[in-house]
Amino acid sequence: MFICERRFQLWEHLDSVNPKTIGFVPTMGNLHDGHLALVREALDQCEHVIASIFVNPIQFGAHEDFHEYPRTLPEDLAVLDETGCHVVYVPTMDEIYPSGELSITKVSVPKMSEVLCGKDRPGHFDGVTTIVCKLLNIVQPGAAYFGEKDWQQFTIISQMVMDLDFTLDTYSVPTQREPDGLAMSSRNSRLSASERKLAPLLYKNLCDVRKQIVAGKTDFRALEKGAMEKLKDEGFKPIYVSIYDEDELTEMNPKDFGEPRIFGAAFLGNVRLIDNVPVNPNP
Question: Looking at 13, 32, 35, 67, which residue is catalytic?
Fold first, then answer.
């Protein structure tokens, strides 16, 4: 496995490689099986697989957990090697933001970035699209892979790729879950023992909303409100439970066309958890 910090090292290593054969998995490290599922999917579809590890400061808010985000580079490199990843790009801060992150040109996808997680995390998705845009330009892959746990992020990045005429395909990979249903996330390690026992209830509540829709309930706003109240009673600080069109990221009503997806976010202690489930798993 080839490991590099500088783009010129990456370009020299890939000099004879057809970009269309490259699958790319951007990450912030602290890898778990959800990340490795992306690598495995890329390996199934592409001749060459590149992962990146970079904790991106501009997608964290002023009071968020950038400095607390776990850095586990030696362990990450070991599991990527074991999984079969071919190249790992581990850029330094000055490699990505040579003039500092405050003066960087930013990429923004309007409307989609302002709802759901974007509503209580202003600027977050501008940070995501900016770093992904930069990494796609550096790596020049034929395909990029993202997890469905961050469905809003995947949809926004796919829109950016289309709007800016990138010549690559974006793929989503199903959310990897713990045996009790909790979506795998790097932030789960920050949950206390008691919080970890409660955490799967976010997923359970979203599944309960899905069951009610499938059973014929049509008052979506009442379903959202009921799930929020239940989460609060269970010890969460709910941020939202919303039924949205999964492609347009707009609020849905029962008679609307499109595929509904149920999104939820809540704090458990100081840890912000997100999850989502499609209403029709196999449309």
Answer: 35
